[in-house]
Amino acid sequence: MSDLLDGLRVLLLEDEPLIAMDVEQLCLDNGAAEVITVRALEEIDPQAAVSSVDVAIVDLMLNGVSTLDFARRLQQAGKPFVFASGHSDADEVQASFPEVAFVAKPYAGADLVNAVAAACGRLSPA
After folding, report:
1. Which keywords does UniProt give here (predicted)?
2. Quick count: other Cβ atoms within 10 Å of Cβ 28?
3. How far apart (Å, rounded) are the C-alpha atoms in residues 42 and 44?
4. E strands in the chain
């Protein structure tokens, strides 16, 4: 594949196991050093999670719980991230996070990788 994500530690917030496995492999195939998958926000210490990764891929909802507060924490810490979600709150998300890419499910793997690479300054935004 490519090395667009070369060496990155990626935090993946995704509650669908098959999608999580696919995205994890996609990131690794594109050079990511590590992918930490979180299926529920209560599984992690938000502060530690934010400080231990380079970039995040955030689903808008994890088991019915909004991830927008976590996304704000990422934003405040200056961590790049993208939203990858099947939820259609794109307008609300764009209003709150105008500079953050929103990749709608179902998405092509290349679209997600390119969005993550762009968030990290490794590729010009589409």
Report:
1. Phosphoprotein
2. 15
3. 6
4. 9-13, 34-38, 55-58, 61-62, 65-66, 81-85, 102-104
List, as one string, the DSSP characters of 67-101. -HHHHHHHHHTT--EEEEESS--HHHHHHH-TTS-
* Bridge partners, 83 (sequence order): 58, 102
Domain spans of the chain, in order of start: 9-119
Over residues 65-91, the pLDDT tens digits come to: 999 999 999 999 999 999 999 876 667
Q: Which is nearest to 5 in space by CA: 124, 125, 115, 126?
A: 115
- Which of these CATH numbers, 3.40.50.2300, 1.10.3660.10, 3.90.180.10, 3.30.428.10, describes 9-119? 3.40.50.2300
Is the pTM here over 0.85, yes or no?
yes
30: helix, strand or coil: coil
Q: Would you give the DSSP letter of residue 121?
A: T
